[in-house]
Design a protein that fits this description.
It is a single chain. This protein is α/β, with parallel strands linked by helices. The chain has one domain: TIM Barrel, CATH 3.20.20.70. The chain contains eleven helices and eight strands. The chain has helices spanning 10-17, 29-35, 39-49, 63-74, 88-99, 112-120, 130-135, 140-153, 168-177, 186-193, 196-212; strands at residues 2-6, 24-26, 54-57, 80-85, 104-109, 125-128, 159-162, 181-184. An eight-stranded parallel barrel has the order 1-2-3-4-5-6-7-8, surrounded by six helices. Helix 1 runs parallel beside helix 3 (39-49). The longest helix has 17 residues, at 196-212. The chain is globular and about 70 Å long. It binds erythose-4-phosphate. The site of erythose-4-phosphate has 11 residues, from helix 7.
Length: 217
């Protein structure tokens, strides 16, 4: 399962890039706003840092402007994936961009029916938002299972990109189901390393080691 970082913060991306676990990056208009920086410059910098796909989202809501924005974003770098919302105009934009060879990530997916349409529109990625579904008392991971089953039934190439991840359990559940990608807020990627027994076990090893007076080097 690939791990993407859900961030538009260059410093955060640089830090996590060094871990070797970052296979791509996703951004959205809220993350760009949070960065306080220009979208075109930010996406160009992220694309130069990261080899894998970098999702850059359109901000128009009508087909013609979305398509123009999508083409402009795609021209920034070869690893840009254009992100469009799961609306009728977004799916039309997805088809048009996919037909011309641009990778598209269809975002804000909340039902399996929407995911089916995105695959038929030629999306490279579908982004179901599990955390936001859980927030309203729905079963986010149940949606991931349904989409994975539907895509397998019809051999769709669209990759299931689990978004709006809120916990390390979401990551494990996505891996158990066999989702293709998870996009993680940096703090969730950090907490994947963590376990209190790892920390206390290491403390005990270090204390015992010190008593030996030895050095490996
Ligand atoms: C994914 O591409 C989205 O940017 C993101 O995962 C949304 O997460 P949120 O629900 O925490 O805002």
């Amino acid at each position: 399962m690939k791990i993407f970082l859900d961030s538009a913060d260059i410093n955060e991306i640089k830090t996590h890039q060094n871990s070797g676990f970052v296979d791509g990056v996703t951004t959205n208009p809220s993350l760009i706003a949070k960065s306080g920086r220009n979208i075109l410059e930010t996406i160009a910098e992220i694309c130069a840092l990261v080899d894998g796909p970098v999702s850059a989202e359109v901000t128009a809501t009508d087909f013609e402007t979305m398509l123009t924005e999508g083409r402009k974003l795609a021209a920034i770098a070869p690893n840009v994936t254009v992100k469009v919302p799961l609306t009728e105009a977004g799916l039309r934009t997805c088809s048009a961009l996919a037909d011309s060879g641009t990778k598209v990530n269809v975002t804000l997916c909340f039902t399996a029916g929407q995911a089916l349409l995105a695959a038929k529109a030629g999306a490279s990625f579908i982004s179901p938002f599990v955390g936001r579904l859980d927030d309203i008392g729905k079963d986010g991971m149940g949606l991931i299972e349904d989409i994975c089953t539907i895509y397998a039934n019809f051999d769709f190439d669209t990759e299931v990109l689990v978004a709006s991840v809120r916990s390390t359990q979401h990551v494990v559940d996505a891996a158990l189901i066999g989702a293709d990608v998870v996009t993680l807020p940096p703090k969730i990627l950090t907490s994947l390393y963590k376990h209190p027994l790892t920390d206390s076990g290491l403390d005990a090893f270090m204390a015992d080691w010190k008593q030996t007076g030895q050095s490996i080097l």
